[in-house]
Amino acid sequence: MMEYPLKYAQICMVLGSLFQAYAQDIAKAVSISHCLESEIKLQCEKLTEFSIQSLRINQTQTFSHTLTPAERNQIERASNKNELYFIRAKLDNERDSTYIQSFCKATDIVDSSFVLGVILNVDAFGRPYAVEVGPVDPADRRLLLLPEEPSDGTLLGLVTVLGSQSAPTPDVEGYRKKLQREQAEKKAAESSDNRSFLSKYWMYIVPVVLFMLFSGGMQGGPQGGG
Amino acid sequence: MDSQLRSLLNVISCLIVLCSLAKVIQAIHEDQIGLHDWSLQFIGRPIEVLLSASQSGASRSLVYTYTEQNVLAAIDVNYGEIAWRQVFENNANGTISSAVTVGEEICVLLNRGRSLRCYDSLTGAFKWEKWFGGKSGNSGSCVGITKTTESPKDANRIVCANSDGMYAVNTKTKNTLWDVRSPNILKRYAFASHSGELVVVGINQDKLTIKRLSSETGEAKENDIERSVSIDPLRSECRLVQPASQVSPFVICYNAAQRQLLSQSSGESSREPHLISVHELGEFPVEGKNVSLQNLETDGLFSLSAGGVSLLLQIHPNGEIKLVQRFVGSVTSCSGTEVLALEVANKRATLGTAAFDSRGFTTVSLTSEPFSFPSAYGNAQRAVFIPRKDSSCAKPSVLFWSDSDVIGYFTQGKILWQRDEALSTIETAAIVDLPISDIEALVEQEFEEKGSFIVRFTKRLLSQALQLKKFAEVIVRRLQAGLRTGKFFQKDQLERDYFNTHKIIVGITGKGKIVGMDSRNGNILYSLQAENLVSPKDRPVQFYLQRTGAHAPFPSQAVIVGVDKKTGDGVLFFFDCVTGEELGPAVRMNRPILQSGLIPVMTNDHLEAIFVLDEDLNVEIHPALDSAETAEFLTRTLHIFYTDPRTGVTRGFRVKRMNQGWKAVELWNSTLVSHGESVVAVAPKRPHDAVHSQGKVLADRRVLYKYINPNLVAVVVEGLDDVKKPYLKMVGMDGITGRVLISQTYRRARGPCQLIHAENWLMLSYWNEKVRQSEINVVEMYRGFDKPNKTYFSSLESHEKPNISTASFRLPGFVDAMKDSVTVEGITYKDIIVALSSGSIMRIPKFLLDPRRPMIPTQAEREEGLIPYAPELPMVTENIINYYKKAYRIRGMVTEVAGLESLSLVFAFGLDLCFTRVTPSALFDVLSDSFDYWILSVVMLVLTVASVIVRNLANAKALKHAWK
Amino acid sequence: MDLLHLLLSLTVVTGTNFFSSAQNVPAKDPSPSASSSDSDLYAVEGKLVYVKSHDTKFIDGVRTKIALDGGEYFGFLNEDRESFTVYGVPPGSYLVEVYHPEFLFEAARVDISSKGKIRARRDGSEGGAGQNQLAYPLRLKLQRKATYFQAKEAMRITDMLMNPMVLMMVLPLLVMIGIPKLLSQVDPEASREMQSTLNMASQPMDLSSMMSQLLGGGAPPPKAIQSRKPERRERKRSA
């Protein structure tokens, strides 16, 4: 079950550059492809492309890709053999050898009726640095965004963009305010308790008086008698 | 009423806070100092050794040295101990260029030649400091001039020359006598000639300048001599040598760029410099780094040494330099006419003297028997003759040091002491278990479950008989040893003790030196040098323990992974970490190594294999595992995580069997670093990280389950943002799938950072640029209140993201290193051990670094025991585990489990070494040392006696009463 | 399938551990920083404020170091054991700490502007304003002697005697035995009275008899057996 909160709106991104050779190049689009295991090098097929401008943090976009029967068979065979299903994202200004990639089990894809949940992590400059793929839980609200119903013939994808949290700093202000408040309370407490001595401590004085009466009575009693 | 209730609540909460804070303060007792801890201090490799100016009084047995680690120290030659030391700044501000002893003081020139600090020679107390100022130059040199006359104008003074000019300071009044500004020289030397004249040599990229000044007034006596030479000022050295008594001295420079020696007369300005290539003089390792040029007392002689080879050279009055003799070792003066040579050959060294007079050079006569100079010493770098009452050229006392950081003192025909300063350069350390004793091994064997029950029964009986026999042997041996030496109960072998607190500390330096120390007292048990192995450029040498001492007849094997000194290809070196023997030949690869690690697959002799991933993505496994099922296991389960420190590309691999070898197949790929950023720290979890509880129990009896991902790796990246302010980014990713689980940015923050990753939390200490203080950020991960329905964790199946809870705290000081304590089961609380730059090692209990600490605690939170939030971590001196001792420049720390659950062992290494133990929850599983057996037994006895007496009295009284 | 998952969870993940940037290694300037736009360097001066006595004799030039920013710049204590100067400090904000193995001094923050104006302020986040101005040249007070050890918990007899349970039992015992003895020596009548009250106390008390005693003031209803003993004793004593 996906446990992070989801918000729906437009996604936008601004890019920095990755390598010295492309120092001034700004990437304009990121393309997402999927791959299946084969020998050493993966064979990847492009699924879709997003423009960097359209990627906004915490928002989801969708894509759909028609699956040929051959592709579907490949995926199902991979799922039967317990193989892995890869997803790769590439920026258009990078060399072919530079990409970000992740994977999940092929059975997960088949089990979630060919709906992919893809997460792109972007850094402070808006550049995607990691990608993630996984099945989508049937109760996930993002499924409402899909343009069509999941079916065997199409591969549907939900691409969510996540950013970076800002780390907290020591809360010095809050602590100082708390101390000031406590000092004020202490002052108020000290000054407000100005009722009379008797009215504050009657609970303790009365039993003592009764006790003294009784013991005096006892001594007096037997002495009078004996 | 209301206020009373409130005040009552306050009292209760204060009590609870106090009780919980009581856990915070916990220290050893004063009489336990040194019982379970020790610390060693070091100075580093000497650059120069000076003798005391006044050879009288208590400072007679002290020699002074300043080292490459920016330390000024005095060593007592009788014992080899540090009499005092002053540790300077760890950067160029504290780099010492030159030192001078004048009177009762020793003065050092620091901070690129800009600051002169003087200390008392006997005690090391600071006396005075002179700031010369000027633009940040390079280095400088000073020379001390003692007064020659008794006139009031003449006084002891120090003349220093740096990149900006020359200064003379009166050592008594501390006033500047004169100064001459002459900037734009890269390197300057100040020398005093025999005639009392001051000769200042300045070197620029293309020019050599010689000035001659009066040491009293600083006036130039004659014109400067300038010569154009192509010289590299930073790697070159110059000295002033007088060829003969009536001839003006020559300035001799070693030009590292041209590998030449240059000599220029300082008197005759018309003469041109003589140049001679070192190659022509003799076989000399010119690529050596520490080339040093030294004067000798005898006129005209000087020595050039590097890489263990010294050339004794002579300069003739006409400026020519000729070779007198070549030594493998070092040469120094022992008197005005004799030189002393320390020669090393075949792991043995000899000392010989040679007399030199106008006729020539008589051959070296040996003064001592050859003494052993083990290969662990390396090459002899310098030798210095120590003039003492009983030391002469015939029976010399020599202080020498080697390029392997060993300082030794040879006197009365033998090496009296040696100091291994390589211990101050340890980069990687590990604490390993000792092997179990034979009897324990038999006990383990006893319970092996193989065979039918009759077989096992007979095996047990046999094993127990053997144990009895071994026990008897041990008793007999101890008795014999005891009768011989008078010490019974002495353990003669290295074996585990009952609580497994006696361990061996293995330290590995960047040059491939491996040192094993006894954890009880820091004694060096063994020291070996892995040949041609150095640490890779971007990380320290890696250490892996392949087999612990629990499998007794087999040695406790460890491997270190480094690179070849010359080629940079990977090297694996196997050794026994208890005895220090090399086990098997070192494996030399032919490519550089990317990653290495242990595989949890054991061979039949309980050896865990190690895999090495090289640049071509080939994977090698040592020892080779060939069976089909291990191959199958490895293909399915071995995943390798690698971050390239240069490019920041992080990849995950799986291995595949290919043509009798293994190949790594990339599974996932991320680029954590973009333009201008760099990776600062990578932290996976410990391999056997024990987490005892699955979650935290809250006050309402619900359980907050922890998110424990054993495959989580945290990477910290440093960079500059668009307004040129530094920032840090921490990314926590699953090492198998590459999924990003944590991504945090720290604005206005920069390194140096220390990252700890354990259980379900991460801790990062960094420097906050805005408030200019050190802070620690704690990130804890929880999965919520739903109980996980699986007892194991699988990265492939887990698609959830953890709930992150994070908070930051301010630290009282500057962090050099940080580590968490570990215990066997993980039940004990954790302590975070922090090494501060003030030399104190402090422990901070983990519950102070809890992100759930509330600002205003509710009733539930108070019941749970959470301490209210405070932004500052308290500086409690009782929590300083090395009490009043100081351990400076700690580079790293290692914590290890002991047999007791409440104990964790801590070893800190850096310039100093410190070993101690930590009990985060107090010593709850053994009776503490302060348990007063004596008083308890006395009281019990008294009470028993009293009760008996009283009983008798009562009986007597009752009897008497009954008779009434 | 499950076994596969189990094995997959045993995967080995390794990482490389780097040192942070070369701040831990003594950096030797490899190149002359002639290009470094060397702003002027200033000196931070100050004094340690403490009472010079036998206890503070170890605050001297050997053990004391004044550190700026944790060791970027060091200053030492002059021969008067009070004043110090840290030279060569470029403009910026620094934390001034005093390192001494036995004593803790207060820390201060020093700001050096680019024109060379030096201001000192209090360092800390607790309590009042964090921007308190301090005097410059600095005056760093001695806070306290650092305690590193815990006092040993010895078992003392007083611990046992001061235990409230013991006190509750022992003191009344002493009172009950001691006071009658004392009184009997002083005043035999008073001791007889004490005896009688004690005997009174030993009678069974029920609510009705107690109330009737208090309000009526009459003699208690005699209990045949018990009253004989004290009578016998009294007779004996008086006889």
From TrEMBL, chain A:
Q: Which residues form a coiled coil?
A: none
Under Pfam families, the record lists: ECM10
UniProtKB keywords: Endoplasmic reticulum, Membrane, Signal, Transmembrane, Transmembrane helix
Query: Which family is it part of?
Result: Belongs to the EMC10 family.
Which spans are transmembrane here?
Answer: 201-218
- CDD domains in alphabetical order: EMC10
Q: Which organism was this protein described from? A: Ramazzottius varieornatus
Q: Which subcellular locations apply to this protein?
A: Endoplasmic reticulum membrane
For this record, an example GO cellular component is: endoplasmic reticulum membrane
What protein name applies here? ER membrane protein complex subunit 10
Bilayer disposition of the protein: Single-pass type I membrane protein
Main location class: endoplasmic reticulum
Q: Which gene encodes it?
A: RvY_05906-1
The record's annotation in PANTHER family points to: CHROMATIN COMPLEXES SUBUNIT BAP18-RELATED, ER MEMBRANE PROTEIN COMPLEX SUBUNIT 10
From TrEMBL, chain B:
**Similarity remark:** Belongs to the EMC1 family.
Domain ER membrane protein complex subunit 1 C-terminal, chain residue ranges per copy: 758-963
Keyword annotations for this protein, in alphabetical order, are: Endoplasmic reticulum, Glycoprotein, Membrane, Signal, Transmembrane, Transmembrane helix
Q: What is this protein called?
A: ER membrane protein complex subunit 1
Q: Which InterPro entries match?
A: Beta-prop_EMC1_1st (IPR058545), EMC1 (IPR026895), EMC1_C (IPR011678), Quinoprotein_ADH-like_sf (IPR011047), WD40/YVTN_repeat-like_dom_sf (IPR015943)
Write down the membrane topology.
Answer: Single-pass type I membrane protein
Q: Report the record's Gene Ontology biological process terms.
A: protein folding in endoplasmic reticulum
Subcellular location per the Swiss-Prot or TrEMBL entry: Endoplasmic reticulum membrane
Domain EMC1 first beta-propeller, first and last residues per copy = 27-421
Give the gene name: RvY_06079
Where do the TM regions start and end?
A: 933-954
Which residue positions does the secretion signal occupy?
1-27
Taxonomic superkingdom: Eukaryota
The UniProt record lists the keyword Transmembrane: yes
Q: How does it assemble?
A: Component of the ER membrane protein complex (EMC).
Tell me which GO cellular component terms the UniProt record holds: EMC complex
The answer to whether UniProt assigns keyword tRNA-binding to this entry is: no
UniProtKB/TrEMBL annotation, chain C:
Q: Indicate the family of this protein.
A: Belongs to the EMC7 family.
Q: Which InterPro entries match?
A: Beta_sandwich_EMC7, EMC7
Primary localization class, coarse: membrane
Where are the annotated segments for Disordered? 211-239
Where does the sequence pass through the membrane? 165-184
Q: What's the protein's topology in the membrane?
A: Single-pass membrane protein
* PANTHER family linked: ER MEMBRANE PROTEIN COMPLEX SUBUNIT 7
According to the UniProt record, one GO cellular component term is: EMC complex
For whether the record's keyword set contains Ribonucleoprotein, the answer is: no
In this protein, which residues make up the domain named ER membrane protein complex subunit 7 beta-sandwich?
Answer: 63-168
Cross-referenced Pfam families, in alphabetical order?
Answer: EMC7_beta-sandw
Protein name (record): ER membrane protein complex subunit 7 beta-sandwich domain-containing protein
Compartments annotated for it: namely: Membrane
| Extent of the signal sequence | 1-15
Keywords attached to this Swiss-Prot or TrEMBL record, sorted alphabetically, are:
Membrane, Signal, Transmembrane, Transmembrane helix
